[in-house]
């Protein structure tokens, strides 16, 4: 081999041997400092873990009435007013989330949803863009539901992402088939009434709290649920004192009165999130 080439090779090898420890150290540093998506996701989800009742804890109260407070759409007043009222009474609720609305005017922020979830609240699936499901083709319905479920899961809100709430109460046979095929746990309608113990898992009834709702009547329904050991799933939208054109708001003071009445009867009933209620009903 040419003597000059031998010298060049010798210089290159020497340079590599000198630089290698620093290259290794640098590579190690970059590897350690580079975010790992799976690790970040796991860490974030751990930070969002909250105290929820175990099936064993719920089992003790199985033979009682059940009260579930749900709120639709993720309006900001549900956080600033509804959440505060329930939190002051050490009660958890369940919010039906529309992912495409989060962070827009009048709706909750992602940070507020994080606070709710850490506090033990359920974040349920209200579809991705809140369209009338019955007006859509089956594949479109599937996308609306599963896109919302995916968003909730990606943000670590996994506890109730497979519990659907129908926008406008709209659903049809294609919806029911889709929910069955995609293994959703339950779906809530806007059909009024106490939910009997004979539950149709995708047609759960509710009592809608509207400006015209009489508080004395609500108290009577709570007493009836206690007597018959049945369930009431309450539904709210915006919390505002003055009724709007859509009649979808509720006076927060009236809501406080209802919550106080429920809490006063806590020895005779369970106050649960929607997923806790399902856990109770699925216990054999």
TrEMBL record:
Cell compartment(s), UniProt: Secreted
Annotated transmembrane regions: 6-23
Protein name per its UniProtKB record: NodB homology domain-containing protein
Pfam entry (one): Polysacc_deac_1
Keyword Signal applies: yes
Keywords, ordered alphabetically: Membrane, Signal, Transmembrane, Transmembrane helix
InterPro entries to which the protein is assigned, alphabetical: Glyco_hydro/deAcase_b/a-brl, NODB_dom, Polysacch_Deacetylase
Domain of life: Bacteria
Occurrences of domain NodB homology (ranges): 65-264
